[in-house]
């Protein structure tokens, strides 16, 4: 009986070592929660910017002037809001992930982490270029759906090197983006749902599943 238990313990340790060597498992669920809260705050700022409404059948007149040029006011708002959210999210996410890695004695930046970041970056970079193209073509109503879809693709692509649960979050983001493409008048609401509420729910799920 003791030999069987020792064998099981050995197999579990081997499995754990293999998982640590092939997957980045230091992601913090709480980081997802805080990222979601930051996204909610940014979405509410957008709600204020768009005259306290979640529904706009045509965003074009808010984004372009009569000559068809992007409004400098919109560009400034977008830059400041996006930069603030990105900086806060990266800072909090990195801090909590480093803290978790130290607590569990795991490496923070190894070859697995690098592969994960690269696989995340490729769809995100492609999505960013596509969004710039949409803006130049005055297809502003598709910006939020494309953001959700490419973010979902990035999560699926990066999930090969981290927790499998991230893959399902990516699938949900893609579905949300496809629905948003049809109901694009509610783009801000879909953005808040995807980047805010979903991150909070999924972050709590990961926290209680892996960290409690």
Following the backbone from N to C, one meets helices and strands in this order, namely: HHHHHHHH
- Most strands sheet: none
Helical run tally: 8
Share in helix? over 70%
- Tell me how many strands there are: 0
Instruction: Give the overall average pLDDT.
Output: 80
Radius of gyration (CA) equals: 20 Å
What proportion strand? Answer: under 5%
Structural class: mainly alpha
Which stretches are low in confidence, meaning pLDDT under 50 for 5 or more residues running? 17-22
Identify the overall geometry.
Answer: elongated
End-to-end separation: 30 Å
Question: How many structural domains can be distinguished in the coordinates?
Answer: 1
Defining traits:
212 residues; mainly alpha; 0% strand
Annotate the secondary structure layout.
Layout: H1 2-22, H2 29-49, H3 60-63, H4 72-104, H5 111-136, H6 143-158, H7 165-182, H8 187-211
Helix pairs in contact: 2-4, 2-8, 5-6, 6-7, 7-8
């Amino acid at each position: 009986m003791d030999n069987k238990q020792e064998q099981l313990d050995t197999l579990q340790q081997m499995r754990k070592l293999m998982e640590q060597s092939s997957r980045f498992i230091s992601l913090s669920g709480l980081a997802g929660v805080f990222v979601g809260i930051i996204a909610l705050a940014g979405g509410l700022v957008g709600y204020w910017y768009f005259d306290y409404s979640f529904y706009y059948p045509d965003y074009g007149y808010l984004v372009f002037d009569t000559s068809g040029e992007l409004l400098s006011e919109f560009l400034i708002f977008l830059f400041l809001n996006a930069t603030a959210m990105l900086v806060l999210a990266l800072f909090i996410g990195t801090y909590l992930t480093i803290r978790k890695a130290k607590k569990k004695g795991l490496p923070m930046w190894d070859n697995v982490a690098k592969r994960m970041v690269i696989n995340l970056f490729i769809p995100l970079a492609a999505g960013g270029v596509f969004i710039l193209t949409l803006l130049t073509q005055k297809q502003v109503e598709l910006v939020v759906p494309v953001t959700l879809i490419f973010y979902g693709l990035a999560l699926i692509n990066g999930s090969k090197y981290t927790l499998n649960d991230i893959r399902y979050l990516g699938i949900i983001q893609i579905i949300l983006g496809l629905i948003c493409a049809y109901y694009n008048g509610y783009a801000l609401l879909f953005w808040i749902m995807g980047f805010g509420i979903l991150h909070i729910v999924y972050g709590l799920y990961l926290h209680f599943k892996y960290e409690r």
